[in-house]
Amino acid sequence: MRVLQIIDSLHPGGAERMAVQIANGLVGSIEFSALCCTREEGLLKEQLNKRATYLFANRSGRIGLSGLRRINEFINERKITHLHAHGTSCFTAFLLTITRPRLKLIWHDHYGNSEQLENRPIRLLKFISKKFNAIIVVNRQLQSWATQRQLSNKIFYLANFSSLNSSTTINDLNIPDTSDHRVVCLANLRPQKNHLMLLNVWRGLTKSHPEWSLLLVGKDFEDDYSATLKQFIKSNRLEESVFILGSRTDVSNILKQCQIGVLSSISEGLPLALLEYGTASLPVVTTDVGACREVVGNTGFVIEATQSEDFSNQLEKLITDPELRLDFGHKFYERVKANYGCEPYIEKLEGIYKSL
Q: How far apart are CA 165 and CA 252, in angstroms?
């Protein structure tokens, strides 16, 4: 098999990271593994395995004909057999299959607003799904949604996996030294991630635990939402305990210097952040959205998304109890290792490819 992963950008995000991880994981396992970024390159480009062939299509405009030609030429030259389109890149892949009907097209649905699926646009997706040979989804809600709308007769639930760099190198984060008292939130600064709830919780906790700090790691879009968060931090005098680190490629390095991982989202697919917390042996507090409860099980605290007081109480339990942190962190590590590893994922994925 000769497989091309397709993704619209390489800015840090769940779908983007999975596209890179899959391309890397397939290297040496199949005949040819490649990744195409259609529109915008980003920090994740440097995480692509050098043995995975890379193409930047540089599409612009709604159709992006010149970019499509580049991808088409690449498919021809490299004799691609399977297109694995992630998220919104399914439209690009659909256009490519019009002139290449023998290509097997797999759409990977990473949709993060699993709690608002009734509002998801369907018309265009329903039309282009005629070309889908299979659909892969990241949680059960998405599987039910795609099945009910008859988007394909082959719909596979395949939970994300973590391939966090296991380097032991620790580099300074250039923030005040609270290295034994850090909570981290891996989430791009978007309303869906509900940082405001987390900051409200933190405002209360920092009064009784001033030695602790909160690190917000994820893309800062410098938009109204970002401005609201920064104003909240300033207005509540949290500048000494809350640090916005932005997009980072040294996630493993950051997690090694933290004690607790949190997610406060109002909606998710299957967040890679949770898997990375587990890989780093961090105990977690997360909201009960998407596949979060399935991932964490009884190895951490899973809270209803609207229950900020409960979220605060459980986070404080971890802050005040180092033994509980150690116990939860170890159990979560073992759970992620057993259920969300790279090798079993790639084996299942190859099985899907071969079945088409």
A: 6
Helices (H) and strands (E) in the chain, counts: 13, 13
Residue located via tokens 């299509």: 57
| In a shared domain, residues 265 and 200 | yes
Q: Measured between alpha carbons, how far is 344 from 350 in angstroms, rounded to an integer? A: 10
Cα separation of 178 and 191, whole Å? 28
- 248 and 346 both lie in a single domain: no
> Which three-class secondary structure state does DSSP give residue 274?
helix
Give, for all 356 residues of the chain, the pLDDT tens digit.
Answer: 999 999 999 999 999 999 999 999 999 999 999 999 999 999 999 999 999 999 999 999 888 899 999 999 999 999 999 999 999 999 999 999 999 999 999 999 999 988 889 889 999 999 999 999 999 999 999 999 999 999 999 999 999 998 876 555 678 788 877 779 999 999 999 999 999 999 999 999 999 999 999 999 999 999 999 999 999 999 999 999 999 999 998 999 999 999 999 999 999 999 999 999 999 999 999 999 999 999 999 999 999 999 999 999 999 999 999 999 999 999 999 999 999 999 999 999 999 999 99
- pTM of the entire structure? 0.92
The CATH number of the domain holding residue 265 is 3.40.50.2000
How many residues does this entry show for the chain? 356
Tell me the residue range of the domain where 244 lies: 182-339
128 shares its domain with 213: no
Residues 333 and 295 in one domain: yes
Q: Burial of 285 by CB count in 10 Å (0-12 exposed, 13-18 middle, 19+ buried)? A: buried
